[in-house]
Amino acid sequence: MKFLRTLLLPLLLLCVTYPATSMAHGERAQMPQLRMRTVHWIDVQASTTKLAINEIVKIKGKFMPSEYWPHHVNSIEETAFLNIGVPGPSFVRLDSRVNGVPMIRSTSFHKGEVYDFEITLKARKVGRYHVHTVINVEGAGPMIGPGMWVEVTGDESTFQNTAKTLLGETIDLETYGLGNVMFWSALWFAVGLAWFVYWLTKCPIIVPRFKRTAELGFEADQLITPMDRRIGGIFLVLTLSLIVGGYGYAQEKWPITTPLQTGRIDIPPLDQPPTPISIKLIEARYRIPGRSFRMEFDVINGSDRPVTIGEFAAGNLRFINAKVLDVKAKDEHDLVASDALRVEGAPVAAGATQRVVIYADDAMWETERMTTMISSPDAVVAGMLSFFDDKGGRHLVEFGGPMIPDFGMVKG
Amino acid sequence: MKAIDNPASVSAGQHGLSSAIEQRKAYVQVDLLVIPLIVLLFMGIFSFHFALLVGDWDYWVDWRDRRWWPLVTPLALSVLPGVFGFLLWDKLRLPLGGTLTILCLTLAAWISRYLNFHIFADFPMNFVWPSTYIGLGLILDCMLLLTRSFFWTGLFGGFAFGLLIYPLNWSMLAPFQVPLELNGTMLTVADLMGYEYIRTAIPEYVRIIEESTLRTFGSAVTPLTAVFAGFLNILNYWFWLWIGYLGAKALWIRKIV
């Protein structure tokens, strides 16, 4: 008991009274292969990272379902939903679109297709939130995109969220219908409680009625008095009348209603030219001691300008070639390695086919738990390369293939 | 205290309760102890049971459709009224099983929605209010009291229990099924709330709601579901009464009481 009092109770109190802030959405818990081979998120950004209650933040960017989507994972080409990962309704989602089509309902996305998306959020609760884009895939779960910190300030009591019905009524979604719900709930609770209290008035109940019921056996119905039966009749009529009356009241007050809406949305593809760059993965080796990913490609440059690789992205990790791009992390959890991509054999001249080797070296492989890819039963990786020409034109090319781990045990 | 420690100190013919007044007082004390415990027990087990079997259909207003919610709910809701309804009637001749268990569920549901869903998770209360089922419990109890028969209670009460869930809740649900428009798409108020108040772990496709698959019956989805739920619930209620009967027969209960 003393142990309980001195250690466990204070611990319990601490847990209850000091809830720790949730810092992540489990993205690191997903298998690296799953992160690398499901959805590639491109140029995801927030319109602002500091806003007040009632102000708007837009999250926009592109995504591409991987061509190397694992066969054992339910496909994004079946049923999927563009979502946002925030702790509860700290924001309300006013709009979300993919290729300009409203994403109110579920849809399906094609592998290898690049989609534009934009999500409009309105700040509802004060706090600092790590906002992630998410695509939920039926049967597979959430495919989490990059996160960014967004801070909301101001007075929560001023939050407003209204909508206009097709009958012309403007409603406040924070409180709409609640008074009516509470009235009917309280009424039914009172009626039920009255029934319970009626039987409680026969107190003492348990022991005397138990003994009497046992004594009377098949004649135990004698315990029910004519008054009980009258009360039963009254309550039955009252209950049925309230149900019919309540139904009639609702029909009178809200004569026009529709069933809940569901169904699927189709998204037309973006009108975009095919990329003139094609690549073939020759070899991908992950060297564990150096946290270094070495990949060798044959690059076929079908464009009319020389190109080089500016970025390699995999599983929401971005490795930047500082000679081509200047990208800095937006916050302390932005998974950007600003100068971690080394490229050998580039640029690739226009019309040429050339062997290119890239090295993505950074501790992020370890800190983001990507190194567990070596223990996967399906050691296939995928990633996205951003090629840039000398005019700044960008071409996105996905690659994938088997990965060989290098444990650093073999010399030479 | 001494007498308990040393039974030999109680003389022959001496009882703990020496008069009818004392006996009544002791019986009242049993009631005062047991009835609140039963209420707490019902609140706990019924809310847990209901969360497992009905869950989202009762948590969110945008799950209460015309087809699944009125069908699934009575089947799960009849369990405790059936089992404990039998016990309370068979052992105490109290027609309270339906109303008392559902009152306890309702109380626990409101506490949980307010504290967990509204205060802790920040959802507006008008999005997460619990449905009401107390009227259904009253119908079962009144039927049992008036007919004094489990057969007729199951036949009429069990049927009404499944049939009336939708009309019973319509007075609260109707305003949430008023149509509106969002970006060229028609939605109900409930759909809009489900879209706007973000639930990261509950994407739209997770909702198990009507999907226009009762083609032959046109728009008569609600009455059709209600009648079907009613018929199904007759058997369901009888089944749980039988489980209560088995429970009442159990040796361990006889040993306790």
Description:
The complex is a heterodimer of chains A (412) and B (257). The relative contact order of chain A is 0.14. In chain A, strand 14 (307-314) and strand 15 form a beta hairpin. Chain A has 6 helices and 21 strands. Chain A is an alpha+beta fold. Chain B has 257 residues and is mostly helical. Chain B has 13 helices and 2 strands. Chain B has helices at 2-5, 20-53, 56-59, 69-77, 79-92, 97-120, 125-128, 134-147, 150-163, 165-173, 189-196, 221-249, 251-256; strands at residues 179-182, 185-188. In chain B, strands 1-2 form a two-stranded antiparallel sheet. In chain B, helix 5 crosses helix 6, helix 5 packs across helix 12 and helix 8 runs antiparallel to helix 9. Chain B starts with a helix and ends with a helix.
> What percentage of amino acids of chain B are in beta strands?
under 5%
Q: Provide the gyration radius of chain B in Å.
A: 23 Å
Q: Determine the mean pLDDT of chain B.
A: 90
The greatest interface between two protein chains, and residues involved on each side, is: A-B, 95 and 91 residues
Low-confidence stretches of chain B at least 5 residues in length (pLDDT < 50)? 1-13
Biggest sheet strand line-up of chain B: 1-2
* Low-confidence residue ranges of chain A: none
Task: Spell out the helices and strands of chain B N to C.
Answer: HHHHHHHHHHEEHHH
Q: Which percent bin holds the helix content of chain B?
A: 55-70%
Strand order of the largest sheet of chain A: 1-3-7-5-6
Largest sheet of chain A: 5 strands, antiparallel
Number of helices, counting only DSSP H or I runs of 4 residues or more of chain B: 13
Residue-averaged pLDDT of chain A? 90
**Roughly how many Å apart are the termini of chain A?**
64 Å
Structural class of chain A: alpha+beta
Largest β-sheet summary of chain B: 2 strands, antiparallel
Distance between the termini of chain B: 24 Å
